[in-house]
Amino acid sequence: MQLSTIASPAQTPTPWPAEGGSTGGVRLLAPYDALFREGDETTAFYEVLSGAVRAYKIFPDGRRQIVAFAFPGDIVGFCQGDTYRFDCDALTTTRVRVIHKQSLLRAMRERPELAEKLLEVARGEVETLQDLSLLLCRKTAIERIASFLLTMARKAPDPVAQRLALPMCRADIADYLGLTIETVSRNMTRLRTLRIIDLPDRGSFQVRSLERLRQLAECDGTDH
Amino acid sequence: MQLSTIASPAQTPTPWPAEGGSTGGVRLLAPYDALFREGDETTAFYEVLSGAVRAYKIFPDGRRQIVAFAFPGDIVGFCQGDTYRFDCDALTTTRVRVIHKQSLLRAMRERPELAEKLLEVARGEVETLQDLSLLLCRKTAIERIASFLLTMARKAPDPVAQRLALPMCRADIADYLGLTIETVSRNMTRLRTLRIIDLPDRGSFQVRSLERLRQLAECDGTDH
DNA sequence: CGGATTATTGACAGCTCTCAACCCCTGTGG
DNA sequence: CCACAGGGGTTGAGAGCTGTCAATAATCCG
Fold this sequence. Notes:
The structure is a homodimer.
Chain A (H helix, E strand, L loop, with lengths): L25 E4 L4 E3 L7 E7 L2 E6 L5 E7 L4 E2 L10 E4 L3 E7 H10 L1 H27 L2 H14 L9 E2 L4 H8 L3 H13 L3 E5 L2 E4 L2 H8 L7
Antiparallel strand pairs in A: 1-8, 2-7, 3-6, 3-8, 4-5, 4-7, 9-11, 10-11
Helix pairs in contact in A: 1-2, 3-5, 3-6, 4-5
Chain B binds a DNA duplex through helix 5.
């Protein structure tokens, strides 16, 4: 499963020019700096080069839902209308490449094959969101957390026997998975007690049994 | 809010040729006939002309999640990879227009502006799925049902003072909203008790207070 | 009319949320 | 160097909502 509003790096090699020419430059963000806000005009979208960002929506009554985390190689702000539908800011020090919408549209008219690649990016985003919907709709708290950790683990070249970063705080995880901080915390320690993961410190985790993590995450019912 | 894997009819006038020529013909489906199954090769996608279809995924442990309902004007099966990621079948007698992927790709190479329209379709699909995620993540049972009914109501020209069809059974609604049949039933009657809706019979409903339905659906906290 | 299917309602259990206390780590200032 | 305050995370107790199981009611269809 992938995180939403994003295309994973492996399956879609960046289809736009890599040089920082007319497609745009690089922006540097400090932790919690805003990349864009809900309602801003969508003049560009962004490829995360290093660091991480979160995209989220605030409800009228104050509830917050994180729609996506984005990591190096991921794209944020794609598939938006004339204005952004959510807020987006950095989790840590982050560099993003700016891709201006207009110049991309121009390039698309000249090179139709570029459009196919962009449709692929959109497709990846749809898949990601479908998986998120499945997660939110059918999974228990521990299954959601297992899915989330598995997603984070898959980003690493060797997911096991190695400390993996969790750059977001518990509140962010909770608001992404549709849980509360306390439920996240409780089930993280439960996974630790079950010897499925280790929690060496706040900002990282380590997978001890990839298989059991996967069983929980994929709801195959063989581990209940 | 829109239902997922779908582009709403109003915002995207059908970008492909309307005649039943090389883009494909029309298929007629009886209730519960399959349109396609998970794993099938994606040779085409479909525009619903009349009736309604549901798209869903079955988990290894038997849980089911409905990812989308599609009604006339909506498109299903778009934004899929080489194989479909879910099953799709008809709720009622349904007619769909078949749009072959290959002929669409050819048309796109000839007319680059078509690609932009398709990206719009993809964008609509992404928005829809984001809304679904928000619904599943942050809303209570009654809020989900209010959101769902509001979506159904918005399809009608005059949403109030008129019986609106609910072509899907309670189990379908439950599996779409991430609830059980019983919870759906209980909260439907609760909405009726609150005089927000009427339930004249199984297959339909009627909005009595659009405002209060909207308040519940949009979580604005002024109606608790 | 009768059987099957679907929907509603009730009782109860369980999971998650809420509220609260506590712990750990960090940074600050005496 | 230590005391202290503050923030984030963990843990605990209890309440509430939703799920489960079961019985009943309504509807459909032959």
